[in-house]
Amino acid sequence: MSGRSNGLRSYALLYLLFLYAPILLLPLFAFNSGTIIAFPLQGFTTDWFTQMWGNPTLRRALSNSLIIAVSASVMATCLGVFAARASTRFTFPGKGGIMGFIMLPMVLPEIIVAMSLLVVLLGLGVELSILTVILGHTLICMPYGIAILSTAFSSLDRSLEEAAYDLGETKWGAFRLITLPLVMPGIISSLLISFTISLDEFIIAFFLAGTEPTLPTYIFSQLRFPKQIPSIMALGTVLVALSILLLGIGEYFRRRGIARMGGKNGGGFL
């Protein structure tokens, strides 16, 4: 029994090392003065971060990605609130099929979704731009938002809404004053996960962005030039730090939501 336990522990350690070692190496090479990504390290420098920020194409790609990620996360979360509310509170014909159809982009290969959207948009005469990427990312992010928000709505006590109705509140008033504050941690979690997915998404942006660069497509285009690799490492370090920050914010609101609902603080984010 002890040998099996040691084997599982070694397997878990190797798995975590394989998973997180590349992320841990990012800041090492981002602050390395050498242009070749190899050991031994040559010295400490912050020039790559300065070079990264001084690149106008990179700033444009970052600006586009932030606009797309914020817009897609807000739209996906708003639509997710409606879908999650309907699926957890009401019964209607074809409910299972409709919800399954909405959640389909979560399991479909993204390249199939991207190609289908490209054919449809070009067939309708829509010019490829940031807007088309926002629409595509909203389609991809919405199932994840619905999954999070459905859990938040399902955990609500319906008697709270019924008590608000008995006290003379309208349905909108009860939703605004009772339901919305209680599911707010789920809404924030949906916004954060949708923002992260959109910021990181490459395939749909590659197909639908047209001539507008996004951060993933810019990084992909720069990998062909060895001299640009250290700047990409610096950019990766910034993105990892941003992801950790967003994860921490999401975990804070998850714990706050559990405390508000009177539950136990178990499990991790999402």
UniProtKB/TrEMBL annotation:
Pfam families on file: BPD_transp_1
Keyword field contains Transport: yes
Residues passing through the membrane, by range: 12-41, 61-84, 96-124, 130-156, 177-209, 229-253
InterPro entries on file: Bact_Polyamine_Transport, MetI-like, MetI-like_sf
UniProt domain ABC transmembrane type-1: residue ranges: 62-250
Major subcellular site: membrane
GO annotation, biological process: transmembrane transport
Localisation per UniProt entry: Cell membrane
Membrane topology classification: Multi-pass membrane protein
Name of this chain's protein: ABC transporter permease
Species of the source: Paracoccus onubensis
